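Q: Given only this backbone (453 positions), what sequence would you predict?
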């Protein structure tokens, strides 16, 4: 690590060790601190470290430099851990499952990025070393694109909600296949698990290396039940945070895609720290020294959406929606059931047009007639053009100016006056009209009304 830091070179470590040598006593143990410190200096210099964990990797090696790589690659079948299974069983009496220390189990639990056969390592390492490096900042020519689509029939807010939830609407993986080349998915939060509702990794858009992070919405009822309808757990957001930090280290642009009803609202998410996970993402994005382009491609639900959407440029597809809560949830709070969701949707100001007027988003990406589900290729091409244009526009700013402009952007949202005052008045008028209509509908006789349910 010291030589690589002086020469500004990446490091690839390949480990196969049973741990510290007992016969060398405490001096052997101290090598953990020594190697971790050397790795820390290499990391602070913005240089890449790829760690390959082969069979076996145990003890002080695992608990120092081997687990600190920017990317961790485990070989299939390798046994990896801090304390070996035989020692655990004989010192604690705990009976372990047969695969307790298998690389495959660690991959499932989000502890390593990739599980690769040795025959594939050379190409994978070549790819990672090529992409995980800082490049001189170069200004790119930005395509001039309209902030709003051409005029035409305007769907109602409730119609847009239905289009955004269309089962054939393209999901994140559909866009990645069409607009990102050489994508390599990286897995896990290295703390608890690998949430399948959030995916991320490295790839190229228009020849530029970027970090991709986004919600992966289920595309079938079977997938939806398995992935909690696209609602992410804390480990998904912590994986996103890890990839944000990877982007910051190598000054790679971050492109995020938002398509979720919201963070998972259950007890397990609370127990694992969902509020802290969302808060940490928002704080990290505020200070990330690299361009962030966020794209709302479907449903943008509450804090679970915002935790990936605090970008320098926030783009939104024409028939996507982005809201403080779903129309159904708002209707239940206001009127006791979901039947009034269509009326409430309008009051929530959740459409792209509403949010552009409020300054919450920066541009609306046109969709094919009828919605993105009607033509995936055309929808993806429009997303690509707007993302490339936004990245080119942001490439002109130095990191310090970029972070300051991002802070001012969110700092000024919601200030009293202008469009905000008008929208607040509109929301109050719409809610008042909805309430009056419901009261008339619920009237059961002269002078008698059941009121809102």
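A: Predicted residues:
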């Amino acid at each position: 690590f010291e030589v690589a830091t002086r020469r500004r070179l990446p490091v690839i470590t390949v480990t196969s060790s049973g741990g510290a040598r007992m016969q060398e006593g405490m001096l052997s143990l101290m090598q953990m601190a020594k190697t971790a410190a050397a790795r820390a200096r290499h990391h602070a210099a913005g240089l890449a470290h790829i760690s390959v964990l082969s069979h076996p990797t145990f003890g002080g090696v695992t608990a120092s430099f081997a687990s600190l790589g920017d990317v961790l690659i485990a070989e299939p079948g390798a046994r990896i851990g801090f304390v070996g299974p035989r020692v655990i069983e004989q010192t604690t009496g705990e009976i372990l499952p047969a695969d307790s220390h298998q690389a495959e189990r660690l991959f499932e639990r989000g502890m390593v990025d990739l599980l690769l056969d040795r025959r594939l390592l050379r190409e994978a390492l070549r790819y990672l070393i090529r992409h995980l490096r800082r490049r001189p900042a170069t200004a790119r020519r930005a395509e001039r694109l309209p902030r709003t689509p051409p005029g035409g029939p305007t769907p109602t807010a409730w119609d847009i909600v239905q289009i955004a939830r269309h089962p054939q609407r393209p999901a994140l993986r559909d866009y990645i296949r069409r607009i990102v080349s050489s994508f390599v998915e990286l897995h896990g939060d290295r703390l608890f698990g690998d949430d399948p509702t959030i995916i991320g990794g490295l790839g190229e858009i228009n020849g530029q290396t970027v970090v991709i992070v986004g919600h992966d919405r289920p595309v079938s009822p079977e997938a939806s039940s398995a992935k909690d309808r696209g609602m992410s757990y804390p480990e998904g957001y912590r994986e996103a945070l890890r990839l944000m930090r990877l982007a910051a280290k190598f000054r790679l642009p971050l492109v995020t895609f938002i398509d979720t009803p919201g963070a998972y609202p259950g007890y397990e998410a609370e127990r694992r720290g969902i509020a802290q996970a969302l808060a940490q993402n928002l704080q990290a994005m505020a200070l990330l020294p690299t361009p962030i382009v966020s794209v709302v491609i479907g449903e943008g639900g509450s804090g679970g959406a915002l935790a990936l959407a605090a970008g320098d440029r926030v783009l939104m597809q024409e028939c996507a929606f982005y809201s403080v809560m779903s129309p159904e949830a708002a209707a239940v709070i206001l009127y006791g059931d979901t039947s009034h969701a269509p009326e409430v949707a309008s009051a929530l100001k959740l459409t792209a047009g509403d949010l552009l007027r409020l300054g919450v988003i920066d541009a609306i990406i046109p969709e094919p007639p009828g919605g993105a589900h009607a033509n995936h290729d055309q929808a993806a091409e429009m997303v690509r053009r707007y993302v490339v244009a936004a990245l080119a526009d942001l490439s002109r700013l130095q990191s310090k100016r970029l972070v300051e402009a991002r802070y001012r952007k969110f700092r000024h949202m919601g200030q009293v006056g202008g469009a905000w005052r008008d929208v607040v008045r509109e929301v109050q008028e719409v809610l008042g009209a909805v309430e009056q209509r419901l009261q008339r509908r619920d009237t059961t006789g002269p002078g008698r009304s059941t009121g809102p349910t």
